[in-house]
Design goal:
Layout lengths: L1 H12 L4 E8 L16 H5 L3 H13 L8 E4 L5 H14 L4 H5 L5 H9 L6 E4 L5 H14 L5 E8 L4 H7 L6 E8 L7 E2 L8 H7 L4
Parallel strand pairs: 2-3, 2-4
Antiparallel strand pairs: 1-5, 1-6, 4-5
Length: 211
Amino acid sequence: MFATYYITSMKVMADKAYITKWCFWSPGEGSAKSPPLPFVSPMAKRRLSQLSRMVLHAIHEVSQGKQNIKITFSSEYGEITQQLKISEEILETQKVSPTKFSHSVFNTPVAVATIAEKNTAGYSAICAGKDSFYCGFCECLAALYSGADKERIYVHGDELIPEPFQILSGGANTPFVIAFFLSLVPSDCSIEVPKNFHCTGPDFAKNFLHI
């Protein structure tokens, strides 16, 4: 229903939207598990999950120095490693650390990024299972086509699923993040958003960005 609503909206108000800058990051074989984030203090980085680090890196790369631009964040699993730690803590102590809880909520990555980037424009966080990438992208385009925003950042990613949860997800996954700076105005190196992109983030990167 969520996706259908936005698809209908785009058919009514659609023009064209452009990816003016993009970032795709995934840990390669033998490389670090998360981006280095040289612009973040070591103490702040120590508290961040793999997902939060990847999202912060991607948003920083595509923000183009703009501090007040709305962001849409989506993920299939969110802060799943932090959720596992909390579940283990409940089993062991029947208590939950406030610090761990504050870093386990679904919107933690985008919240951390907006604080680090001093972005006060606001954000949305979307979880729609395997359609999370598609639905998040639709939400961004709906905002652009409706005139609510002229520019918007979209970021989607997932961290490595902890081993205890892999039996539910069908096995280990490949951590990644993909982010776009979206605009109604093309630039010299922009890419027009395709009309049919009902796919996953990695598939979009492969088929449309040719990564």
